[in-house]
Design goal:
single chain; 112 residues; mainly beta; six-stranded mixed sheet; four-stranded antiparallel sheet; 49% strand; globular
């Protein structure tokens, strides 16, 4: 399984961040696969953001739930993260992962 994140490297405060994870090697609808977004702010540990299951159901971190939406595009075998009203505290390397397999990560900086 290979995962590749894509999206803007720089977002202004109060804007919406959208990242996409393109998956190859397995369909995102394959039974018993969960597709996660995690992030790591500079100098800090990993933070789980949320996931979307093979069934399409979603789950979110309580601390980010009000600002987060995860969706999928099964025709392109992709899933996406939308994070609203970003602040500089959302600056981080964002990863998509199954926990067993990881994308390389993409750095998102929130700055005016």
């Amino acid at each position: 399984v290979q995962l590749q994140e894509s999206g803007p490297g720089l977002v202004k405060p109060s804007q919406t961040l959208v990242l996409t994870c393109t998956v190859s090697g397995v369909s995102i609808t394959t039974h018993n696969y969960w597709w996660h977004w995690v992030r790591q702010p500079p100098g800090k540990g990993l933070e789980w953001i949320g996931n979307i299951a093979y069934s399409g159901s979603t789950a979110y971190s309580p601390s980010l739930k009000s600002r987060t939406s995860i969706s999928r595009d099964t025709s392109n075998n992709q899933f996406s993260l939308q994070l609203n009203s970003v602040t500089p505290e959302d600056t981080a390397v964002y990863y998509c992962t199954t926990w067993a397999d990881w994308g390389k990560g993409t750095l998102v900086t929130v700055s005016s």
